[in-house]
Design a protein that fits this description.
The structure is a homodimer of 329-residue chains.
Chain A: H1 5-9, H2 11-21, H3 27-36, H4 53-64, H5 69-93, E1 98-99, E2 102-103, H6 105-109, H7 111-132, H8 134-156, H9 164-174, H10 176-189, H11 194-221, H12 224-227, H13 233-236, H14 242-250, H15 253-263, H16 270-282, H17 285-306, H18 311-326
Antiparallel strand pairs in A: 1-2
Chain lengths: 329, 329
């Protein structure tokens, strides 16, 4: 699947910015470069950085609204560092051993150094944001607080049945906060009016939901070769993602009992994963989820219509929206 | 032992500031209030906050050099939050189950939420610093980066023999960074001249070393009733603190072999702790350590003489210095 222009155009600059911000000599900085995918475990340059969605959105929005890329870059890099710090710590919390097809930081360097590496990345993100000015620091730290609160909700979901509403509240914080922040930072760096920034943030809200729900669908039905994660991995990890919330809301007595039985287990076997997927497929959970993705992306398109973007900018963002609906990783 | 005036005078204001910055309603904020010692595990107000050395130094220095307490308070609170976030994560990394005589955050709420709680506390610290202005954020984040680099060195010491020099480099970062930052922030909030701030930071460097070395001595010879930690706890945890570095540097063949044998073990038994303490006492390690504390505190007193403090301020800081030499917790 071809990447949309927004995700390719700024890649080199973001990579450069990340390299600069993580150029320290000690082991800890090598761990961080491995964590963001700039280097492999031997310190050899690698190309494993993920989509760079958030910094690309900062730079695209800033540029589209008349700002300068160079001024927006530190804020964009800061946001990507916050995202990556959260991944390092999430992987410890979820005991995930693989990300982007490679060993996670904790599984390679141990839990203690991984906690420390994530802490450093959070601090380095703020150091970058300081270069972007006071408003950028404030926006970044607000989003960071909200993201961590969302992660707290997610962790609190363990061992509980989660309703679709609570799930949406959680992802609005955990995933949505940084995506909204990307648009906010872009608007700030372009010196946009308050109502424009509000419109951008609203669009970010819809995109954030669509993005996370698509992620959840990939966590069950994604292709291992493409996602870098085993199929059904979210089920194996008993993750309370949208597919489970939908399945529990739609399931009849017998199927509901099966879901509860599996999710009550300490360890979920391959066969259990298959049984859960069978129930989900019988309930058309994937289709319901895809409809939700389509719904939120439509809302984003509506918001986009209100924004003072150029024709080309509108096309670029629409291309990204279409990509987010279909993405396979 | 009576607390020095600097550690009692600002306590109520710092407590108020901490309460305000951690007033959120969700579980995560309750965990943070427990972590800093504002509440017990049932959410009942508690008095278990530790010495509040760092924020007290910020406020004392600011006031002494003509600044306003109210303006300096957010920065002081921010620094205490950074210190406490590091304690929450350190306790996970060191598998410590007790701090200040109570269960550590991870041992009460689990590792996943403890990682998340520490992350939130780091972000909330920055949010406080934002209220104190751009220079404060920059000073705080630089100190945070240095502290975490120091923690990285400390973790890297595991399984290695540590020389006194490397040990001092490590504590200059891990402990020294925040203490130097306390003086720097105090100077900034008072609008002090650059050379005064440099003098303050130099004094902080000496105090930081004395403080950490005293801490290390307490980690071996401290009284459990007073420190809240079992005696010899740093030996049991195989922590590469100054007493071990001194002992290894001074020990003869047989004693060195004993130290190496014990520190190579996976688990250190009560009897091993006793054997190590016997060797250390034979080598007069405690006295050597105390001499170092005295040395660095003397250097701090020399620095103090150069600073434009009032007579009363000089007396107050000297009282603190004398306390740091003798403190038992």
């Amino acid at each position: 699947m071809t990447l949309p222009r927004i995700l390719t155009r700024y890649r080199a600059q973001v990579k450069e910015g990340l390299l600069k911000s993580l150029k320290g000599k000690s082991l800890l900085y090598a761990i961080l470069r491995y964590g963001v995918g700039l280097e492999d475990e031997r310190g050899t340059p690698a190309k494993n950085m993920g989509k760079l969605l958030r910094p690309s959105l900062v730079l695209f929005t800033a540029e589209e609204l008349g700002g300068e890329i160079e001024e927006a870059l530190p804020g964009a890099v800061a946001l990507e560092l916050i995202h990556n710090f959260s991944l390092i710590h999430d992987d410890i919390q979820d005991c995930d051993e693989t990300r982007r097809g490679k060993q996670t930081v904790w599984s390679l360097y141990g839990v203690a150094q991984a906690i420390n590496a994530g802490d450093l990345m959070q601090a380095l993100a703020v150091a970058q944001a300081v270069r972007a000015g006071e408003e950028a620091v404030a926006a970044l730290v607000d989003a960071t607080v909200e993201m961590i609160e969302g992660q707290g909700l997610d962790l609190a979901f363990e061992g509980k049945e989660v309703k679709v509403d609570s799930y949406l509240q959680m992802i609005d914080k955990k995933t949505g906060a940084l995506i909204r922040c990307a648009f906010r930072l872009g608007g700030l760096f372009a010196g946009a009016q308050r109502d424009v920034i509000e419109g951008l943030v609203e669009m970010g809200r819809e995109l954030g939901r669509a993005f996370q729900i698509r992620d959840d669908l990939l966590g069950v039905w994604g292709n291992r070769e493409i996602t870098g994660k085993p199929q059904g991995s979210d089920i194996r990890r008993r993750k309370k993602s949208l597919p489970v919330a939908i399945a529990l809301a739609c399931a009849s007595g017998e199927e509901q009992a099966l879901l509860r039985e599996v999710y009550a287990k300490e360890e979920i076997a391959d066969n259990d994963v298959k049984r859960v997927i069978t129930v989900m497929e019988h309930l058309d959970v994937c289709k319901t989820g895809e409809e939700q993705v389509t719904h939120y992306l439509k809302c984003a398109t509506h918001q986009l219509a209100e924004l003072p973007f150029s024709e080309q900018g509108r096309e670029d963002l629409q291309e990204l929206i279409d990509y987010l609906a279909r993405r396979e990783k």
